[in-house]
Amino acid sequence: MLVHLTQLFKKHLGDEHVYRFGGEEFTLVVNDDIEVAIITMDKLRTDIQNHQFTYMQSTLNITISIGLVGIDAHEHTHLSEILRLADNYLYLAKNNGRNCVVNGLTKISNKGKETLTK
């Protein structure tokens, strides 16, 4: 199943970088501005949601929650800070219904759920 998921990542990201970061977590490096990256990640999310995965002769449908961080190439941001922000956005996505892309531009205000501000 991870092979098929990685193929979907590469379909949307081309030659961009895809890294497995943990058991079910990946780090994807997208060399675009944040608005284009949001669109790309949302298309990826939709494609995964609509894809039928096969595992041991069973068909599975899965979703993905994405924490997206935009960085300025001229800023000297440490990798640990970028990963911390991405992880925070990922958990906001999971806590706000899953199957979505959350980033520093996202506004979340679902009945007492945490509101994300940049």
UniProtKB/TrEMBL annotation:
Its EC number is 2.7.7.65. It comes from the Bacteria. It catalyses: 2 GTP = 3',3'-c-di-GMP + 2 diphosphate. Residues 1-106 form the GGDEF domain. GO terms for biological process: cell adhesion involved in single-species biofilm formation; negative regulation of bacterial-type flagellum-dependent cell motility. GO terms for cellular component: plasma membrane. Pfam families: GGDEF. PROSITE patterns: GGDEF. GO terms for molecular function: diguanylate cyclase activity. CDD domains: GGDEF (cd01949). InterPro entries: Diguanylate_Cyclase, GGDEF_dom, Nucleotide_cyclase, Rev_trsase/Diguanyl_cyclase. This is diguanylate cyclase. It comes from Pseudoalteromonas haloplanktis (Alteromonas haloplanktis).
